[in-house]
Specification:
The complex is a heterodimer of chains A (425) and B (165). Chain A is an alpha/beta fold and 425 residues long. Chain A has helices at 17-22, 27-33, 37-47, 59-64, 89-96, 98-112, 126-141, 172-179, 208-212, 214-220, 222-226, 259-266, 291-295, 301-306, 325-339, 345-363, 368-381, 389-403, 405-412, and strands at residues 75-80, 116-121, 157-162, 203-207, 229-230, 233-234, 236-242, 249-254, 257-258, 276-280, 289-290, 298-299, 315-320. Chain A starts with 16 loop residues before the first helix and ends in a 13-residue tail after the last helix. The chains are: A alpha/beta (425), B alpha+beta (165). The interface between A and B is large, with 57 and 47 residues. The complex binds flavin mononucleotide, iron/sulfur cluster and FE2/S2 (inorganic) cluster (FES).
Protein backbone atom coordinates (compact mmCIF):
# COMPACT_ATOMS: atom_id res chain seq x y z
CA UNK A 1 0.00 0.00 0.00
CA UNK A 2 1.22 3.48 -0.87
CA UNK A 3 1.07 5.61 2.23
CA UNK A 4 2.68 8.80 1.05
CA UNK A 5 0.46 9.19 -1.97
CA UNK A 6 -0.73 12.60 -3.07
CA UNK A 7 -3.65 13.93 -1.05
CA UNK A 8 -7.02 14.20 -2.71
CA UNK A 9 -8.82 16.27 -0.08
CA UNK A 10 -6.30 18.07 2.11
CA UNK A 11 -4.10 20.13 -0.15
CA UNK A 12 -2.08 23.27 0.37
CA UNK A 13 -2.87 26.67 -1.12
CA UNK A 14 -6.38 25.91 -2.26
CA UNK A 15 -8.22 27.84 0.47
CA UNK A 16 -9.24 30.61 -1.92
CA UNK A 17 -10.83 30.35 -5.33
CA UNK A 18 -7.72 31.59 -7.16
CA UNK A 19 -5.55 28.88 -5.65
CA UNK A 20 -8.17 26.18 -6.17
CA UNK A 21 -8.68 27.24 -9.77
CA UNK A 22 -4.93 27.36 -10.43
CA UNK A 23 -4.69 23.76 -9.20
CA UNK A 24 -7.22 22.67 -11.83
CA UNK A 25 -10.33 23.25 -9.74
CA UNK A 26 -13.75 23.57 -11.40
CA UNK A 27 -12.48 21.71 -14.49
CA UNK A 28 -14.26 18.56 -13.23
CA UNK A 29 -17.52 20.54 -13.05
CA UNK A 30 -17.13 21.49 -16.69
CA UNK A 31 -16.41 17.88 -17.55
CA UNK A 32 -19.44 16.66 -15.58
CA UNK A 33 -21.78 19.15 -17.25
CA UNK A 34 -20.80 17.71 -20.63
CA UNK A 35 -21.94 14.25 -19.48
CA UNK A 36 -25.46 12.99 -18.93
CA UNK A 37 -26.51 13.17 -15.26
CA UNK A 38 -26.78 9.37 -15.15
CA UNK A 39 -23.22 9.09 -16.45
CA UNK A 40 -21.99 11.22 -13.56
CA UNK A 41 -23.77 8.94 -11.08
CA UNK A 42 -22.33 5.88 -12.83
CA UNK A 43 -18.81 7.24 -12.45
CA UNK A 44 -19.37 7.76 -8.73
CA UNK A 45 -20.80 4.23 -8.48
CA UNK A 46 -17.71 2.89 -10.21
CA UNK A 47 -15.45 4.71 -7.73
CA UNK A 48 -16.92 2.72 -4.81
CA UNK A 49 -17.02 5.95 -2.80
CA UNK A 50 -18.90 5.36 0.46
CA UNK A 51 -20.43 7.89 2.83
CA UNK A 52 -17.90 9.44 5.19
CA UNK A 53 -20.48 10.66 7.72
CA UNK A 54 -20.54 7.41 9.65
CA UNK A 55 -22.72 4.79 8.00
CA UNK A 56 -20.57 4.12 4.94
CA UNK A 57 -23.45 3.80 2.49
CA UNK A 58 -22.36 3.66 -1.21
CA UNK A 59 -22.69 7.20 -2.55
CA UNK A 60 -23.48 6.50 -6.20
CA UNK A 61 -26.18 4.05 -5.18
CA UNK A 62 -27.73 6.64 -2.86
CA UNK A 63 -27.87 9.15 -5.72
CA UNK A 64 -29.50 6.59 -8.00
CA UNK A 65 -32.42 6.20 -5.54
CA UNK A 66 -33.72 9.63 -6.54
CA UNK A 67 -36.82 8.82 -8.63
CA UNK A 68 -36.02 9.50 -12.27
CA UNK A 69 -39.14 11.24 -13.42
CA UNK A 70 -40.85 12.48 -10.30
CA UNK A 71 -42.20 15.98 -10.92
CA UNK A 72 -41.21 18.89 -8.70
CA UNK A 73 -37.98 19.92 -7.07
CA UNK A 74 -35.15 17.77 -5.70
CA UNK A 75 -32.68 18.87 -3.08
CA UNK A 76 -29.07 18.24 -2.21
CA UNK A 77 -28.04 18.67 1.43
CA UNK A 78 -24.55 18.62 2.83
CA UNK A 79 -24.21 17.40 6.38
CA UNK A 80 -21.59 19.62 8.04
CA UNK A 81 -22.99 19.15 11.54
CA UNK A 82 -19.83 17.39 12.75
CA UNK A 83 -21.06 16.53 16.21
CA UNK A 84 -19.86 12.98 16.83
CA UNK A 85 -17.45 13.28 19.76
CA UNK A 86 -13.88 12.82 18.56
CA UNK A 87 -14.64 14.12 15.07
CA UNK A 88 -13.03 17.28 13.69
CA UNK A 89 -12.25 16.41 10.09
CA UNK A 90 -14.95 18.35 8.25
CA UNK A 91 -13.88 21.52 9.98
CA UNK A 92 -10.34 21.03 8.66
CA UNK A 93 -11.65 20.30 5.19
CA UNK A 94 -13.92 23.35 5.21
CA UNK A 95 -11.03 25.57 6.26
CA UNK A 96 -8.47 24.11 3.87
CA UNK A 97 -10.46 23.17 0.81
CA UNK A 98 -13.97 24.69 0.79
CA UNK A 99 -14.20 24.76 -3.00
CA UNK A 100 -13.83 20.99 -3.25
CA UNK A 101 -17.11 20.79 -1.32
CA UNK A 102 -18.79 23.51 -3.39
CA UNK A 103 -17.69 21.96 -6.68
CA UNK A 104 -18.66 18.49 -5.43
CA UNK A 105 -22.12 19.82 -4.58
CA UNK A 106 -22.58 21.42 -7.99
CA UNK A 107 -21.64 18.11 -9.62
CA UNK A 108 -23.87 16.07 -7.29
CA UNK A 109 -26.71 18.56 -7.82
CA UNK A 110 -26.38 18.06 -11.58
CA UNK A 111 -26.32 14.28 -11.22
CA UNK A 112 -29.54 14.12 -9.17
CA UNK A 113 -31.31 17.02 -10.88
CA UNK A 114 -31.35 19.37 -7.89
CA UNK A 115 -31.52 23.10 -8.44
CA UNK A 116 -30.99 23.89 -4.76
CA UNK A 117 -28.41 22.79 -2.25
CA UNK A 118 -28.02 23.55 1.43
CA UNK A 119 -24.94 23.16 3.59
CA UNK A 120 -26.11 22.50 7.15
CA UNK A 121 -23.18 23.52 9.34
CA UNK A 122 -23.17 23.22 13.12
CA UNK A 123 -23.93 26.50 14.82
CA UNK A 124 -20.74 26.60 16.84
CA UNK A 125 -18.67 26.77 13.64
CA UNK A 126 -19.27 30.51 13.21
CA UNK A 127 -15.92 31.33 11.64
CA UNK A 128 -16.12 28.32 9.36
CA UNK A 129 -19.64 29.27 8.24
CA UNK A 130 -18.46 32.80 7.42
CA UNK A 131 -15.56 31.47 5.35
CA UNK A 132 -17.87 29.08 3.58
CA UNK A 133 -20.34 31.88 2.77
CA UNK A 134 -17.51 33.83 1.23
CA UNK A 135 -16.31 30.83 -0.79
CA UNK A 136 -19.84 30.25 -2.12
CA UNK A 137 -20.09 33.94 -3.05
CA UNK A 138 -16.75 33.72 -4.88
CA UNK A 139 -17.89 30.62 -6.76
CA UNK A 140 -21.16 32.35 -7.64
CA UNK A 141 -19.30 35.43 -8.92
CA UNK A 142 -17.34 33.22 -11.31
CA UNK A 143 -20.44 31.44 -12.56
CA UNK A 144 -19.78 28.05 -10.91
CA UNK A 145 -22.91 28.41 -8.81
CA UNK A 146 -26.13 30.11 -9.92
CA UNK A 147 -28.01 30.25 -13.18
CA UNK A 148 -26.87 28.58 -16.39
CA UNK A 149 -23.58 27.30 -14.94
CA UNK A 150 -20.75 27.52 -17.49
CA UNK A 151 -23.30 27.98 -20.25
CA UNK A 152 -24.73 24.48 -19.71
CA UNK A 153 -28.28 25.51 -18.90
CA UNK A 154 -27.95 23.89 -15.45
CA UNK A 155 -29.03 26.09 -12.52
CA UNK A 156 -27.81 25.40 -9.00
CA UNK A 157 -28.23 27.67 -6.00
CA UNK A 158 -26.30 26.91 -2.82
CA UNK A 159 -26.98 28.22 0.67
CA UNK A 160 -25.19 27.93 3.98
CA UNK A 161 -27.55 27.17 6.87
CA UNK A 162 -26.29 27.27 10.46
CA UNK A 163 -27.51 24.85 13.11
CA UNK A 164 -28.22 25.97 16.65
CA UNK A 165 -26.69 23.38 18.94
CA UNK A 166 -28.07 19.82 18.97
CA UNK A 167 -26.04 16.68 18.26
CA UNK A 168 -29.12 14.85 17.05
CA UNK A 169 -29.34 17.20 14.05
CA UNK A 170 -26.40 15.28 12.56
CA UNK A 171 -28.83 12.40 12.01
CA UNK A 172 -30.07 12.97 8.49
CA UNK A 173 -33.82 13.15 9.07
CA UNK A 174 -33.42 15.29 12.20
CA UNK A 175 -31.24 17.53 10.07
CA UNK A 176 -34.06 17.87 7.53
CA UNK A 177 -36.53 18.77 10.28
CA UNK A 178 -34.10 21.37 11.57
CA UNK A 179 -33.50 22.77 8.10
CA UNK A 180 -37.26 23.18 7.73
CA UNK A 181 -37.36 25.22 10.93
CA UNK A 182 -38.54 22.59 13.41
CA UNK A 183 -37.09 20.86 16.46
CA UNK A 184 -34.48 18.33 15.38
CA UNK A 185 -36.51 15.17 15.91
CA UNK A 186 -35.71 12.24 13.60
CA UNK A 187 -38.40 11.01 11.22
CA UNK A 188 -39.55 7.45 10.81
CA UNK A 189 -38.09 5.72 7.76
CA UNK A 190 -39.48 4.78 5.27
CA UNK A 191 -40.15 7.01 3.47
CA UNK A 192 -36.45 7.56 2.88
CA UNK A 193 -35.18 11.03 2.07
CA UNK A 194 -34.48 9.99 -1.53
CA UNK A 195 -38.24 9.70 -1.98
CA UNK A 196 -39.58 12.19 0.55
CA UNK A 197 -36.93 14.39 2.08
CA UNK A 198 -36.51 18.14 2.44
CA UNK A 199 -39.84 19.99 2.07
CA UNK A 200 -41.36 16.63 1.10
CA UNK A 201 -39.23 16.32 -2.04
CA UNK A 202 -36.60 13.78 -3.12
CA UNK A 203 -33.36 14.63 -1.32
CA UNK A 204 -29.79 13.39 -1.13
CA UNK A 205 -27.87 14.02 2.09
CA UNK A 206 -24.12 13.53 2.10
CA UNK A 207 -21.32 14.35 4.46
CA UNK A 208 -18.79 17.12 3.66
CA UNK A 209 -15.95 14.66 3.07
CA UNK A 210 -18.06 12.49 0.76
CA UNK A 211 -19.03 15.41 -1.48
CA UNK A 212 -15.52 16.87 -1.48
CA UNK A 213 -14.18 13.64 -3.01
CA UNK A 214 -16.49 13.92 -6.03
CA UNK A 215 -14.51 16.43 -8.20
CA UNK A 216 -11.40 14.22 -8.18
CA UNK A 217 -13.49 11.17 -9.08
CA UNK A 218 -14.96 12.98 -12.07
CA UNK A 219 -11.58 14.33 -13.08
CA UNK A 220 -9.58 11.11 -12.85
CA UNK A 221 -12.32 8.52 -13.19
CA UNK A 222 -14.11 6.08 -10.94
CA UNK A 223 -11.62 3.30 -11.68
CA UNK A 224 -8.73 5.45 -10.51
CA UNK A 225 -10.46 6.12 -7.19
CA UNK A 226 -11.58 2.53 -6.72
CA UNK A 227 -7.95 1.38 -7.05
CA UNK A 228 -6.95 3.44 -4.00
CA UNK A 229 -7.48 1.86 -0.60
CA UNK A 230 -8.31 -1.71 0.30
CA UNK A 231 -10.87 -3.75 -1.64
CA UNK A 232 -14.42 -2.53 -0.99
CA UNK A 233 -13.02 0.31 1.14
CA UNK A 234 -12.01 2.57 -1.73
CA UNK A 235 -10.24 5.89 -1.69
CA UNK A 236 -8.69 8.02 0.97
CA UNK A 237 -10.22 8.87 4.34
CA UNK A 238 -9.67 11.69 6.75
CA UNK A 239 -8.68 10.22 10.10
CA UNK A 240 -8.83 12.60 13.03
CA UNK A 241 -6.89 11.45 16.02
CA UNK A 242 -7.26 12.81 19.54
CA UNK A 243 -5.91 11.72 22.89
CA UNK A 244 -2.38 11.45 24.27
CA UNK A 245 -0.38 11.05 21.06
CA UNK A 246 2.51 13.27 20.04
CA UNK A 247 0.84 14.59 16.91
CA UNK A 248 -2.94 14.69 17.18
CA UNK A 249 -4.69 16.06 14.12
CA UNK A 250 -6.31 15.21 10.80
CA UNK A 251 -4.56 12.85 8.40
CA UNK A 252 -5.63 11.83 4.92
CA UNK A 253 -4.65 8.24 4.22
CA UNK A 254 -5.78 5.46 1.92
CA UNK A 255 -8.36 3.25 3.61
CA UNK A 256 -6.81 0.05 4.90
CA UNK A 257 -3.82 1.60 6.63
CA UNK A 258 -2.84 -0.56 9.61
CA UNK A 259 -3.68 1.18 12.88
CA UNK A 260 -0.20 0.42 14.19
CA UNK A 261 1.45 2.18 11.23
CA UNK A 262 -0.92 5.13 11.57
CA UNK A 263 -0.19 5.49 15.27
CA UNK A 264 3.57 5.26 14.91
CA UNK A 265 4.22 6.98 11.58
CA UNK A 266 1.53 9.65 11.47
CA UNK A 267 0.60 10.33 15.06
CA UNK A 268 4.16 10.11 16.36
CA UNK A 269 3.22 7.39 18.85
CA UNK A 270 1.97 7.89 22.36
CA UNK A 271 3.35 10.70 24.51
CA UNK A 272 6.32 9.83 26.68
CA UNK A 273 5.32 7.68 29.62
CA UNK A 274 1.88 6.83 28.24
CA UNK A 275 0.81 3.28 27.50
CA UNK A 276 -2.01 2.35 25.12
CA UNK A 277 -5.06 0.93 26.85
CA UNK A 278 -7.89 1.22 24.34
CA UNK A 279 -8.97 2.83 21.09
CA UNK A 280 -12.37 4.07 19.99
CA UNK A 281 -11.79 3.83 16.25
CA UNK A 282 -14.64 5.74 14.62
CA UNK A 283 -16.12 8.32 16.96
CA UNK A 284 -17.76 7.94 20.36
CA UNK A 285 -20.64 5.83 19.05
CA UNK A 286 -18.42 2.98 17.81
CA UNK A 287 -17.49 0.00 20.01
CA UNK A 288 -14.17 0.34 21.85
CA UNK A 289 -11.20 -1.88 20.99
CA UNK A 290 -8.60 -3.09 23.47
CA UNK A 291 -4.99 -2.12 22.75
CA UNK A 292 -4.26 -5.60 21.42
CA UNK A 293 -7.31 -5.56 19.14
CA UNK A 294 -6.46 -2.09 17.86
CA UNK A 295 -2.84 -2.92 17.13
CA UNK A 296 -3.96 -5.81 14.94
CA UNK A 297 -6.59 -3.97 12.92
CA UNK A 298 -6.51 -2.08 9.64
CA UNK A 299 -8.45 1.15 9.32
CA UNK A 300 -11.13 0.36 6.77
CA UNK A 301 -14.82 -0.55 6.80
CA UNK A 302 -14.40 -4.32 6.53
CA UNK A 303 -11.45 -4.78 8.89
CA UNK A 304 -13.06 -2.73 11.63
CA UNK A 305 -16.38 -4.53 11.21
CA UNK A 306 -14.54 -7.86 11.47
CA UNK A 307 -12.95 -6.62 14.69
CA UNK A 308 -16.41 -5.89 16.08
CA UNK A 309 -16.34 -2.13 15.66
CA UNK A 310 -16.87 0.44 12.91
CA UNK A 311 -14.97 2.96 10.83
CA UNK A 312 -17.70 5.49 11.67
CA UNK A 313 -16.59 9.06 11.03
CA UNK A 314 -12.88 8.20 11.17
CA UNK A 315 -12.48 9.74 14.61
CA UNK A 316 -9.74 7.74 16.30
CA UNK A 317 -9.81 8.34 20.06
CA UNK A 318 -6.69 7.10 21.83
CA UNK A 319 -7.06 6.06 25.47
CA UNK A 320 -4.03 5.40 27.66
CA UNK A 321 -3.58 3.37 30.84
CA UNK A 322 -4.00 6.39 33.13
CA UNK A 323 -7.66 6.78 32.12
CA UNK A 324 -10.54 5.21 34.00
CA UNK A 325 -12.90 3.41 31.63
CA UNK A 326 -15.87 3.82 33.97
CA UNK A 327 -15.32 7.56 34.09
CA UNK A 328 -14.99 7.81 30.31
CA UNK A 329 -18.18 5.84 29.80
CA UNK A 330 -19.90 8.12 32.31
CA UNK A 331 -18.79 11.11 30.23
CA UNK A 332 -20.31 9.49 27.13
CA UNK A 333 -23.51 8.51 28.93
CA UNK A 334 -24.03 12.07 30.17
CA UNK A 335 -23.62 13.20 26.57
CA UNK A 336 -26.07 10.74 24.99
CA UNK A 337 -28.63 11.29 27.72
CA UNK A 338 -28.39 15.03 27.16
CA UNK A 339 -28.70 14.63 23.38
CA UNK A 340 -31.54 12.10 23.20
CA UNK A 341 -34.44 13.89 21.53
CA UNK A 342 -36.86 12.01 23.77
CA UNK A 343 -39.24 10.62 21.14
CA UNK A 344 -38.58 6.93 21.86
CA UNK A 345 -38.97 5.42 25.31
CA UNK A 346 -36.05 2.95 25.07
CA UNK A 347 -33.68 5.78 24.18
CA UNK A 348 -34.99 8.44 26.54
CA UNK A 349 -35.30 6.12 29.54
CA UNK A 350 -32.37 3.88 28.64
CA UNK A 351 -29.86 6.71 28.34
CA UNK A 352 -31.11 8.09 31.64
CA UNK A 353 -30.77 4.75 33.46
CA UNK A 354 -27.34 4.16 32.03
CA UNK A 355 -26.16 7.55 33.17
CA UNK A 356 -27.59 6.98 36.66
CA UNK A 357 -26.02 3.54 36.98
CA UNK A 358 -22.65 4.90 35.93
CA UNK A 359 -22.95 7.80 38.35
CA UNK A 360 -23.53 5.25 41.12
CA UNK A 361 -20.56 3.16 40.10
CA UNK A 362 -18.34 6.21 39.87
CA UNK A 363 -19.47 7.44 43.28
CA UNK A 364 -18.69 4.06 44.82
CA UNK A 365 -22.37 3.27 45.47
CA UNK A 366 -22.68 0.67 42.73
CA UNK A 367 -22.99 -3.12 42.95
CA UNK A 368 -22.09 -6.01 40.67
CA UNK A 369 -25.80 -6.34 39.96
CA UNK A 370 -25.75 -2.79 38.60
CA UNK A 371 -23.18 -3.96 36.10
CA UNK A 372 -25.49 -6.59 34.74
CA UNK A 373 -28.35 -4.11 34.68
CA UNK A 374 -26.14 -1.68 32.79
CA UNK A 375 -25.45 -4.28 30.15
CA UNK A 376 -29.01 -5.47 29.81
CA UNK A 377 -30.45 -1.96 29.60
CA UNK A 378 -28.04 -1.24 26.75
CA UNK A 379 -28.89 -4.50 25.03
CA UNK A 380 -32.60 -3.73 25.25
CA UNK A 381 -32.07 -0.39 23.48
CA UNK A 382 -30.52 -1.91 20.35
CA UNK A 383 -32.52 -1.61 17.14
CA UNK A 384 -35.75 -0.54 18.85
CA UNK A 385 -35.86 3.15 18.08
CA UNK A 386 -36.63 5.67 15.36
CA UNK A 387 -32.99 6.61 14.85
CA UNK A 388 -29.66 4.99 15.71
CA UNK A 389 -28.81 7.34 18.62
CA UNK A 390 -29.96 4.68 21.06
CA UNK A 391 -27.60 2.18 19.41
CA UNK A 392 -24.87 4.80 19.58
CA UNK A 393 -25.24 4.76 23.35
CA UNK A 394 -25.70 1.01 23.66
CA UNK A 395 -22.66 0.00 21.64
CA UNK A 396 -20.06 1.82 23.73
CA UNK A 397 -21.75 0.61 26.95
CA UNK A 398 -21.75 -3.03 25.89
CA UNK A 399 -18.18 -2.97 24.59
CA UNK A 400 -16.77 -1.04 27.57
CA UNK A 401 -18.43 -3.37 30.08
CA UNK A 402 -17.49 -6.53 28.19
CA UNK A 403 -13.87 -5.63 27.51
CA UNK A 404 -13.00 -3.74 30.68
CA UNK A 405 -15.22 -5.62 33.10
CA UNK A 406 -12.55 -5.81 35.80
CA UNK A 407 -12.47 -2.01 36.07
CA UNK A 408 -16.23 -1.90 36.44
CA UNK A 409 -16.11 -4.68 39.02
CA UNK A 410 -13.44 -2.84 40.96
CA UNK A 411 -15.76 0.17 41.10
CA UNK A 412 -18.62 -2.03 42.26
CA UNK A 413 -16.34 -3.38 44.98
CA UNK A 414 -15.72 0.18 46.14
CA UNK A 415 -12.21 0.41 44.75
CA UNK A 416 -12.26 3.32 42.39
CA UNK A 417 -10.30 4.38 39.38
CA UNK A 418 -6.65 3.52 38.72
CA UNK A 419 -4.58 5.63 41.12
CA UNK A 420 -3.21 7.91 38.44
CA UNK A 421 -6.46 8.35 36.53
CA UNK A 422 -6.91 11.86 35.25
CA UNK A 423 -9.95 14.01 35.76
CA UNK A 424 -12.38 14.67 38.55
CA UNK A 425 -13.69 11.80 40.63
CA UNK B 1 -42.34 47.89 26.39
CA UNK B 2 -43.74 46.02 23.39
CA UNK B 3 -41.10 44.44 21.19
CA UNK B 4 -41.07 45.59 17.58
CA UNK B 5 -39.09 44.08 14.75
CA UNK B 6 -37.04 46.83 13.14
CA UNK B 7 -37.35 47.70 9.45
CA UNK B 8 -33.71 46.74 9.09
CA UNK B 9 -34.45 43.32 10.54
CA UNK B 10 -37.42 42.88 8.24
CA UNK B 11 -35.35 43.71 5.18
CA UNK B 12 -32.76 41.16 6.19
CA UNK B 13 -35.44 38.64 7.08
CA UNK B 14 -37.04 38.91 3.65
CA UNK B 15 -33.66 38.17 2.12
CA UNK B 16 -33.15 35.12 4.36
CA UNK B 17 -36.68 33.78 3.79
CA UNK B 18 -36.05 33.87 0.04
CA UNK B 19 -33.51 31.06 0.41
CA UNK B 20 -36.25 28.57 1.23
CA UNK B 21 -39.41 27.50 -0.58
CA UNK B 22 -41.34 27.95 2.70
CA UNK B 23 -40.62 30.98 4.77
CA UNK B 24 -41.01 29.22 8.12
CA UNK B 25 -37.77 27.37 7.27
CA UNK B 26 -36.09 30.69 8.07
CA UNK B 27 -37.20 30.44 11.70
CA UNK B 28 -33.83 29.33 13.09
CA UNK B 29 -31.70 31.78 11.05
CA UNK B 30 -34.05 34.59 12.09
CA UNK B 31 -33.86 33.62 15.75
CA UNK B 32 -30.08 33.70 15.32
CA UNK B 33 -30.36 37.23 13.92
CA UNK B 34 -32.45 38.35 16.88
CA UNK B 35 -30.08 36.76 19.33
CA UNK B 36 -27.14 38.34 17.51
CA UNK B 37 -28.65 41.76 18.15
CA UNK B 38 -29.84 41.38 21.73
CA UNK B 39 -27.63 38.58 23.04
CA UNK B 40 -30.70 36.51 23.87
CA UNK B 41 -34.21 35.78 22.61
CA UNK B 42 -36.86 37.41 24.77
CA UNK B 43 -40.42 36.09 25.03
CA UNK B 44 -41.66 39.25 23.25
CA UNK B 45 -39.16 38.68 20.45
CA UNK B 46 -40.47 35.14 19.99
CA UNK B 47 -43.97 36.50 19.86
CA UNK B 48 -43.08 39.15 17.30
CA UNK B 49 -41.25 36.61 15.15
CA UNK B 50 -44.15 34.17 15.36
CA UNK B 51 -46.45 36.87 14.03
CA UNK B 52 -44.01 37.88 11.33
CA UNK B 53 -43.68 34.28 10.09
CA UNK B 54 -47.39 33.58 10.71
CA UNK B 55 -46.58 30.71 13.04
CA UNK B 56 -48.07 29.66 16.35
CA UNK B 57 -46.07 31.01 19.27
CA UNK B 58 -45.66 27.45 20.58
CA UNK B 59 -43.70 26.46 17.48
CA UNK B 60 -41.21 29.28 18.02
CA UNK B 61 -40.93 28.65 21.73
CA UNK B 62 -40.48 24.92 21.13
CA UNK B 63 -37.59 25.56 18.77
CA UNK B 64 -35.92 28.05 21.09
CA UNK B 65 -36.03 25.61 23.99
CA UNK B 66 -34.88 22.63 21.88
CA UNK B 67 -31.60 24.12 20.67
CA UNK B 68 -28.86 24.76 23.21
CA UNK B 69 -27.43 27.82 21.49
CA UNK B 70 -30.49 29.96 22.11
CA UNK B 71 -30.44 31.93 25.36
CA UNK B 72 -33.72 32.98 26.89
CA UNK B 73 -32.15 35.47 29.27
CA UNK B 74 -29.19 37.83 28.95
CA UNK B 75 -25.79 36.29 29.64
CA UNK B 76 -22.56 37.89 30.74
CA UNK B 77 -20.53 39.83 28.22
CA UNK B 78 -18.33 36.79 27.72
CA UNK B 79 -19.91 33.38 27.55
CA UNK B 80 -17.24 30.83 28.47
CA UNK B 81 -18.19 27.36 27.26
CA UNK B 82 -15.92 24.55 28.35
CA UNK B 83 -16.09 21.34 26.33
CA UNK B 84 -16.58 18.39 28.67
CA UNK B 85 -16.68 15.54 26.17
CA UNK B 86 -14.28 12.61 25.95
CA UNK B 87 -11.18 14.04 24.25
CA UNK B 88 -11.28 17.27 26.23
CA UNK B 89 -11.98 15.28 29.40
CA UNK B 90 -8.82 13.22 28.85
CA UNK B 91 -6.86 16.38 28.12
CA UNK B 92 -7.78 17.92 31.47
CA UNK B 93 -11.10 19.72 30.95
CA UNK B 94 -12.32 18.98 34.50
CA UNK B 95 -9.31 20.77 35.98
CA UNK B 96 -9.80 23.75 33.66
CA UNK B 97 -13.45 23.96 34.62
CA UNK B 98 -12.51 23.80 38.28
CA UNK B 99 -9.98 26.56 37.80
CA UNK B 100 -12.54 28.78 36.09
CA UNK B 101 -15.11 28.23 38.82
CA UNK B 102 -12.57 29.19 41.43
CA UNK B 103 -11.21 32.17 39.54
CA UNK B 104 -14.62 33.59 38.73
CA UNK B 105 -16.32 32.50 41.93
CA UNK B 106 -19.33 31.07 40.10
CA UNK B 107 -20.79 27.65 39.32
CA UNK B 108 -21.80 26.31 35.93
CA UNK B 109 -24.73 28.22 34.51
CA UNK B 110 -24.01 31.32 36.59
CA UNK B 111 -22.91 34.83 35.71
CA UNK B 112 -20.38 36.91 37.63
CA UNK B 113 -21.82 39.86 39.58
CA UNK B 114 -20.07 42.37 37.32
CA UNK B 115 -21.93 40.82 34.39
CA UNK B 116 -18.69 40.03 32.60
CA UNK B 117 -18.63 36.22 32.54
CA UNK B 118 -21.13 33.40 32.21
CA UNK B 119 -19.77 29.88 32.65
CA UNK B 120 -21.18 26.83 30.88
CA UNK B 121 -20.14 23.36 29.90
CA UNK B 122 -20.85 22.13 26.40
CA UNK B 123 -20.53 18.90 24.46
CA UNK B 124 -17.89 18.13 21.83
CA UNK B 125 -17.07 21.30 19.90
CA UNK B 126 -15.56 19.44 16.96
CA UNK B 127 -11.99 20.44 17.74
CA UNK B 128 -10.82 17.41 19.71
CA UNK B 129 -7.34 17.33 18.15
CA UNK B 130 -6.56 20.57 19.94
CA UNK B 131 -8.18 19.61 23.25
CA UNK B 132 -8.92 20.97 25.74
CA UNK B 133 -11.12 23.53 24.04
CA UNK B 134 -13.18 26.46 25.27
CA UNK B 135 -15.49 28.61 23.22
CA UNK B 136 -15.79 32.24 24.35
CA UNK B 137 -18.80 33.76 22.59
CA UNK B 138 -18.10 32.63 19.01
CA UNK B 139 -14.32 32.22 19.23
CA UNK B 140 -12.52 28.94 19.87
CA UNK B 141 -9.54 28.74 22.23
CA UNK B 142 -7.68 25.49 21.80
CA UNK B 143 -4.80 23.56 23.35
CA UNK B 144 -5.57 25.32 26.62
CA UNK B 145 -3.26 25.15 29.60
CA UNK B 146 -3.85 26.70 33.04
CA UNK B 147 -1.49 29.53 32.05
CA UNK B 148 -3.25 30.20 28.77
CA UNK B 149 -6.59 30.15 30.51
CA UNK B 150 -5.43 32.68 33.11
CA UNK B 151 -4.07 34.93 30.38
CA UNK B 152 -7.32 34.71 28.44
CA UNK B 153 -9.42 35.67 31.45
CA UNK B 154 -7.14 38.59 32.25
CA UNK B 155 -7.24 39.80 28.66
CA UNK B 156 -11.01 39.59 28.56
CA UNK B 157 -11.32 41.41 31.88
CA UNK B 158 -9.21 44.24 30.55
CA UNK B 159 -10.99 44.34 27.22
CA UNK B 160 -7.79 43.31 25.51
CA UNK B 161 -9.19 40.43 23.56
CA UNK B 162 -11.01 41.37 20.41
CA UNK B 163 -13.76 38.74 20.35
CA UNK B 164 -15.87 38.77 17.25
CA UNK B 165 -19.02 39.24 19.26
C1 LIG C 1 -27.08 10.51 16.13
C2 LIG C 1 -26.43 10.65 14.79
C3 LIG C 1 -25.57 11.71 14.53
C4 LIG C 1 -24.98 11.87 13.29
N1 LIG C 1 -24.14 12.93 13.09
C5 LIG C 1 -23.59 13.12 11.85
C6 LIG C 1 -22.75 14.24 11.60
O1 LIG C 1 -22.47 15.05 12.49
N2 LIG C 1 -22.25 14.39 10.36
C7 LIG C 1 -22.53 13.50 9.34
O2 LIG C 1 -22.08 13.70 8.23
N3 LIG C 1 -23.31 12.44 9.56
C8 LIG C 1 -23.86 12.22 10.77
N4 LIG C 1 -24.69 11.15 10.97
C9 LIG C 1 -24.98 10.25 9.82
C10 LIG C 1 -26.11 10.81 8.97
O3 LIG C 1 -27.36 10.35 9.50
C11 LIG C 1 -26.04 10.34 7.51
O4 LIG C 1 -25.86 8.97 7.48
C12 LIG C 1 -24.92 10.96 6.70
O5 LIG C 1 -24.93 12.35 6.79
C13 LIG C 1 -25.04 10.56 5.26
O6 LIG C 1 -23.97 11.07 4.50
P1 LIG C 1 -22.87 10.10 3.87
O7 LIG C 1 -23.60 8.98 3.17
O8 LIG C 1 -22.12 10.96 2.92
O9 LIG C 1 -22.04 9.60 4.99
C14 LIG C 1 -25.27 10.95 12.24
C15 LIG C 1 -26.11 9.88 12.50
C16 LIG C 1 -26.69 9.72 13.75
C17 LIG C 1 -27.60 8.56 13.98
S1 LIG D 1 -33.49 7.00 19.25
FE1 LIG D 1 -33.32 8.67 20.73
S2 LIG D 1 -32.55 10.40 19.56
FE2 LIG D 1 -33.28 8.89 18.05
S3 LIG D 1 -35.40 9.49 17.66
FE3 LIG D 1 -35.50 8.02 19.34
S4 LIG D 1 -35.41 9.29 21.22
FE4 LIG D 1 -34.78 10.59 19.51
S1 LIG E 1 -14.25 16.46 22.93
FE1 LIG E 1 -13.88 18.58 23.22
S2 LIG E 1 -13.84 19.35 21.21
FE2 LIG E 1 -14.35 17.27 20.90
Amino acid sequence: MILNMESILLKDNVECLEGYFAAGGYKPLKKALALKPSEVTDEVKKSNLRGRGGAGFPTGLKWSFIPKDAPGPRYLVCNADEGEPGTFKDRELLLKNPHALIEGMAIAGYAIGAAHGYIYIRGEFAAEAALLERAVADARAKGFIGRNILGSGFNFELFVHRGAGAYICGEETALLESLEGFKGQPRLKPPFPAVKGLFGSPTVINNVETLAAVPSIIEKGGDWYAAIGAGKSAGTKLFCVSGPVNKPGVYELPLGVPFRTFLENNCGGLKAGKKLKAVIPGGSSTPVLTAAEALAVNLDYESLAAAGSMLGSGAVIIIDESQCMVKLLQVLARFYHHESCGQCTPCREGCGWIEKLLNRLEDGRGTVKDLDTLYSVAEAMLGRTICPLADAMAMPVMSFVKKFRSEFEAHAAGKCCPPDAAGEH
Amino acid sequence: MPFKLTEEFKAKAAHICARYPRKDAALIPLLQELQGQAGFVAEEAMDALAQYLELPYARVKGVVTFYTMFNRAPLGKYHLQVCRNISCHMAGAPALLGRLKEKLGIAEGETTKDGLFTLSTVECLGACGTAPVLQANEDYFENLTPEKLDALIDDLKHGKHPLKR
